[in-house]
Write a structure and sequence with these properties.
globular; mainly alpha; 4% strand; 224 residues; Four Helix Bundle (Hemerythrin (Met), subunit A); three-stranded antiparallel β-sheet; 3 strands
C-alpha cells in the first residue's frame, strides 16, 4: 500500500495529461455511439470531436461534446444536465451515476489505492477524485439505460419511484460492455478497468490502459 500511495502522489504531469486525454476520448466516443443508436444524426460530430481531444483536454472538448450530446440525446433544446435538478431525467441519471460511483469506489479501495488522489478532479472537498475520473467512460452506459427505460417502461414518469430505483440498480448486471477483447457486465468491466488503471499507474504507462465500449447487440438482446 505504501508503494501504491507513493505512486499516486508522484504521478507525473505527462502521465495525467495523456491518461485524461484518453479518458475523454473514450467518453465522447461512447456518447457518439449512444446518439447513433438512437438515430441522432449529429453523432458524426461527436465521433470527429473524440479524435481531436488534446492532452489533458486542453481545448475543453468534453464540455463542447456535452452541450451537443444532451440536447440530441433527449431531443429537448431546453434540457440541462444538472446534478441537483429534480426532474425525472436528471433524477434517474444522478441515481444511476451514484450506483456506478459506489461500485468504482469499492474497486479503488480494494485495489489499495487512495481515492482522494485523482488525475483531473482536484476539489479539496472531494474525497473520491480518482473515482470521479475513472467513471467517465462508463457514464454513457447509464445515459443509454435511462433513455431506454424512459422510452419503454416508464413513459410519462415524473418521479423517482421505488420501481424505477430497482430497475436502475440493475445497470450493474447488464452484460453490455466490450473491454479487452471480451464481453462483460458493467460491474465486471469496472472492476477490470480499475485493476488495469492500477497497473498502468504503477508502470507509468498511460497508453496501456484499455477502455470500455458499449456492446449494442447485447443491449438489444437484454432490453428489447
Amino acid at each position: 500500500m505504501s508503494e501504491i500511495a507513493h505512486a499516486q502522489v508522484n504521478l507525473s504531469q505527462l502521465f495525467k495529461d495523456k491518461l485524461w486525454q484518453n479518458i475523454i476520448k473514450s467518453k465522447i466516443a461512447n456518447q457518439a455511439d449512444v446518439l447513433e443508436f438512437f438515430n441522432r444524426s449529429r453523432y458524426v460530430e461527436l465521433k470527429e470531436l473524440s479524435k481531436s481531444v488534446k492532452a489533458y483536454d486542453s481545448n475543453s472538448d468534453e464540455a463542447q461534446a456535452a452541450r451537443l450530446y444532451w440536447r440530441e440525446l433527449f431531443n429537448m433544446k431546453t434540457f440541462r444536465r444538472e446534478q441537483g435538478s429534480e426532474d425525472i431525467i436528471n433524477s434517474m441519471l444522478n441515481y444511476t451515476y451514484s450506483i456506478l460511483r459506489a461500485s468504482i469506489a469499492r474497486n479503488v479501495v480494494v485495489g489499495g489505492m487512495l481515492p482522494i488522489f485523482g488525475i483531473w478532479h482536484k476539489n479539496r472537498y472531494n474525497a473520491f477524485a480518482l473515482v470521479d475520473d475513472l467513471i467517465e467512460p462508463f457514464r454513457p452506459i447509464c445515459d443509454l439505460y435511462v433513455k431506454i427505460l424512459l422510452n419503454t417502461k416508464y413513459i410519462g414518469a415524473n418521479n423517482l419511484s421505488v420501481n424505477i430505483k430497482r430497475d436502475l440498480v440493475n445497470v450493474l448486471l447488464l452484460e453490455c460492455v466490450s473491454i479487452n477483447g471480451g464481453s462483460s457486465t458493467v460491474a465486471k468491466a469496472m472492476e477490470l478497468f480499475v485493476r488495469e488503471y492500477k497497473k498502468s499507474m504503477l508502470s507509468n504507462t498511460p497508453n496501456t490502459l484499455f477502455f470500455p465500449k458499449i456492446n449494442f447487440e447485447q443491449i438489444q438482446n437484454e432490453l428489447f
